[in-house]
Structures are given as C-alpha cells and as structure tokens.
Amino acid sequence: MDTATHDVVVIGAGPVGENIADRVVQGGLSAAIVERELVGGECSYWACMPTKALLRSEAVLRAARRVPGAREAVTGNLDVAAVLRRRDSFASDWRDDGQVSWLAQAGIPLYRGQGRIAADRVVEVTGEDGVRTSLTARHAVVVATGSGALVPDVEGLPAARPWTSREAVAANEVPGRLAIIGGGVVASEMATAFASLGASVTLLARDGVLPLAEPFVGELVIESLQDAAVSVRLGAEAGSVKRADDGTVHITLTDGEQVEADELLVAVGRTPNTGDIGLDRVGLAPGAWLTVDDTLRVVGDDGAPIGDGWLYAAGDVNRRVLLTHQGKYQARAVGDVIVARAKGEAVDDGEWGRHVATADKRAVPQVIFTEPEIASVGLTAASAEAAGLRIRVVDYDLGALAGSALHAEGYRGDARMVVDEDRSVIVGFTLAGPDVAELLHAATIAVVGEVPLDRLWHAVPAFPTVSEVWLRLLEAYGR
Ligand SMILES: Cc1cc2nc3c(=O)[nH]c(=O)nc-3n(C[C@H](O)[C@H](O)[C@H](O)COP(=O)(O)OP(=O)(O)OC[C@H]3O[C@@H](n4cnc5c(N)ncnc54)[C@H](O)[C@@H]3O)c2cc1C
Ligand SMILES: NC(=O)c1ccc[n+]([C@@H]2O[C@H](COP(=O)([O-])OP(=O)(O)OC[C@H]3O[C@@H](n4cnc5c(N)ncnc54)[C@H](O)[C@@H]3O)[C@@H](O)[C@H]2O)c1
Known about the structure:
The protein has 479 residues and is of the alpha/beta class. 30% of the residues lie in helices and 24% in strands. It has 3 domains: 191 residues, FAD/NAD(P)-binding domain (3-Layer(bba) Sandwich); 111 residues, FAD/NAD(P)-binding domain (3-Layer(bba) Sandwich), CATH 3.50.50; 106 residues, FAD/NAD-linked reductase, C-terminal dimerisation domain (Enolase-like, domain 1), CATH 3.30.390.30. The strands form 5 sheets. Strands 1, 2, 3, 4, 5, 6 and 16 form a 7-stranded mixed beta sheet that branches. Strands 17-18-21-20-19 form a 5-stranded antiparallel beta sheet, sandwiched between helices. The chain is globular and about 65 Å long. The termini are far apart. Nicotinamide-adenine-dinucleotide (NAD) binds next to helix 7 and strand 17.
C-alpha cells in the first residue's frame, strides 16, 4: 500500500472540504484532500448552482412581465431546452476538471476514492480500481463528507425508483406529471422550477410548506404555487408507492386517496455521509451525524473531543446548518484553528472569536429561490420565543413602498423584524417578495453586528428602493 504524510487530511472535496484545505495551506501547513466522486461536491453539480440555473430564467421572464414596456416585449414562453442547457453549463457538464486544476494550483494533492478513518490520524483511501493508499495526518483529520438525500420509510418507495434531488436537478426531460413528497426548501424550489418548465406538479406537503419560516412565507409561496397550477396538498402523507409496468407512479395517501404521476421526487431532508468512513474505529456509530464543539472538533457522547482532539467535522455532516455559505464559514474557522493549534498559538474560541462559528447558532442567512423569493437571517418570532427572548415583532407590507411599486406592478411581499426588547437589537429578519435576495446582507450585518435600533435610524435607505422597508419598520417600531 502506498503511504503519504500531510499536516492535515480532509475527507470530502465539497465546497466545505475545499475551503478547509485552502485555509490550512494559506496558514502555512500542508493539506491533502480525498474525494470519491466529483471535486466540488453536491453544491456544484446537484444542488445550489444547477437548481438556481433552473429557476433563474423563469424569474427573469416573470420580472419582465410585471413591468409595462418590458411586458410587451415578451412575445414567447420559456425556452425549456435553453434552460436545461444553461443548467448543464452551471453544473460544468458534471465534470470537475476546473476544480481539480484549482486544487493543483492551490498546492493541495487530491486522492480519488473512498476515504475511511483507519486509526488515529490515519485515513485509508480506496480508489475505484481497489488500490489503497494510507494517509497519515500530523495534526488533524477533517470530515467534510456532506449529506445525501433521505428516503423515508414508505412502503414500496425504493422499488418505485423515486427521484431524489439529484435526479430532479440533473433531469434531461421534464415529466408530464411530477409528484413531490415534502414541503421544505428542496420541495418548494423544485415545485417552482418544474411547474415553470411545464410539468403538472403535485406537492404532498405533510407538514406544510416551508413550515420553519415565518408563517407569511408559506402562505405567499403556496399562493404563488397555486397560481402556477401546482396542486398543493397540505397534510397529505404518502402511505405506499408503486410504479406500474407502464412507468406510472401510484401513490396511496394515508387517507386512502390516490395520486398518479410520471415521476416522484422525494425531498424530506438529508442523511449524513458517514455510513462507511470508519467511524467505528474511533468509537462512533457509523451513519450518525457528527457532533462537534464550537471549534468544530468531533466530540463523543461525553462531550469530550475524540482522542486528543485530532478529528474535526465541518459542513453538512455536523448538522449545524446545511447550507454552503455557512459550511464555508465553518471551513474558515476550522482551517484557522487547526493552524493555530499546530503552531501553538492562542485559540480565539470566545463568542464571535476567529476560531468558532458563532453565527451558526443565531445569525444564519438563507435565500430560498421560490416565487416570491424568501430571504431570512437569524431567529423567527417562534424560535426567538422558544429561546426565551423577550421580543417584539414588527411587520411591514413590502408592496406599500414606492420602490416596490416601481420595481414591479402589483408587487406583493412582506417583511418582518424580530427585536430583542432587552437589548434593543434585531435578532431576526425575514423578507418575502420578488427579488429580495440581494436585500438580505444588510439584515445579516445588523443581526451579527447587534446594531442598536437607535443607531439604525442613521442608516438611511436610498429612495426609491425596496430597502426603504428598513425605515418603515423602524417607524412602525417607534423611536
Ligand atoms: C437540491 C439542493 C439545493 C441546494 N441549494 C442550496 C443553495 O442554494 N444554497 C446553499 O447555501 N445551500 C444549498 N444546498 C445545500 C448545499 O448543497 C450543502 O449545504 C453543501 O453542498 C454542503 O457542502 P459540504 O461540503 O458539507 O458537503 P457536500 O457538498 O455534500 O460535499 C461532500 C463531498 O464529500 C464526498 N465524500 C463523501 N464521503 C466521502 C468519502 N468517504 N470519501 C471521499 N469523499 C467523500 C462527496 O462525494 C462530496 O463530494 C442545497 C442542497 C440541495 C440538496
Ligand atoms: N436555497 C437554499 O438555501 C436551499 C435549497 C435547497 C436545499 N437547501 C438545504 O438542503 C437541505 C435539505 O433540504 P430539504 O428540503 O430536503 O429538507 P428540509 O429539512 O428543508 O425539508 C424537509 C421537509 O420534509 C418534511 N418531511 C420530513 N419527513 C417527511 C415525510 N416522511 N413525509 C413527508 N414530509 C416529510 C419536513 O417536515 C420538512 O418540511 C436543507 O437543510 C436546506 O436548507 C437549501
């Protein structure tokens, strides 16, 4: 067996693994990375990038149709083949040459194959040809193996060959009828995309649509899905599934009703890619999410770091936040803390310190690219109350702004600011409306910066923009 030694070995070259290795190398240590599929991970080929490419063309068309003058210039419908071609190009045609070259120029050796922890600080890589390589890490091993689609335990489901997000995102043909199990982010975005591409979509949303967001979010998204002829079945639960010989999928709901479709997408959450990475070698259960401390070191059931603290986990696999940008934020923290510990430097692990991912707990930004777009950061009113905060909620109708009226005829949307009354700072902010994605970062800065409301009065939004909602919310709150 070939052997090699590096300061740090990262298992998984998704967005998080790549950033960890880069950070470590920037800090003056050496790092190697192990990847069993495509360098770039889920985000590049089957998630963030291709999904947003599927959604973007219709969003542009919709925006043009909302503005007289532009509306008249829209003389045709969505060109589905062109949308799929653009999606292919944003998925780099499912080739990772570009990212492999990036690793090479960043000085990060790539080992292709399945990585497994074989012993303390040792990762064994098994290539597709069965050839094994043993990698020893002088300082740390980082698990960044991400997550895969969860297929729920519904009778007949695996045999019915359902789509997961991967098959939906990479589809070359649009099914005539698409049923979707789930009502979360993937289900809502894919219902929006496939309806726009011409599928007749049925959404089986057992627990509601985007149930973890502020309540007005689900209401607006449901309304717009229904406008797009999506059949939204709230409370509907699949009891059993069967694919007939002619390919039709028959879904029997728990109330006995039947739903038929040409394809069935399962979008009910994720499962960690830890089933076969050697967790048993370090006393952890294969297939489990990895629990980490605030510096992203993997901890056991007793809360203590594994071994002497050589094992770290970042990104989806630690279940803190399943988002690319937040995983990359963890990557910067974990890369820097490994370097600091290796060099014997002080570890800055206090709240908002350089070596911790404090924002994971209360300042996570997310954009959901449905119609309307949903942009949120921090706590919802419900989660702030559950956290025991004394809050005040301020809502504002986004459509009532001069900027919104100019942006689009009939602009509809809502904004909510959640204020921690004891500290007079914003702890949560949600916007739902056309093109609100780019408004989000101001809210993220206000939440992370814990900017007092008194000071926010001096942050004047330009007229006439949708950002004037900031002023309206402050006025509604009172000075
Ligand atoms: C449909 C969909 C759309 C999404 N859209 C967005 C979005 O718009 N914005 C956003 O922020 N997030 C989005 N996400 C979430 C985002 O994709 C993930 O949070 C992100 O990919 C996590 O990055 P990661 O590096 O932790 O894991 P991954 O991207 O899953 O990468 C892990 C890598 O590790 C490799 N690997 C796993 N096990 C091993 C092993 N044993 N040995 C070697 N290699 C291994 C895998 O092959 C993979 O390449 C979306 C997710 C889905 C499913
Ligand atoms: N734009 C974005 O930021 C974006 C886009 C897509 C995905 N993602 C991320 O990817 C992750 C996965 O997304 P997801 O939509 O698969 O998960 P999710 O957790 O967002 O939603 C899953 C939904 O399925 C429901 N559900 C669970 N079990 C069910 C069952 N047996 N039957 C019916 N419904 C069931 C849940 O109540 C939940 O609403 C999320 O964490 C999300 O943040 C992000």
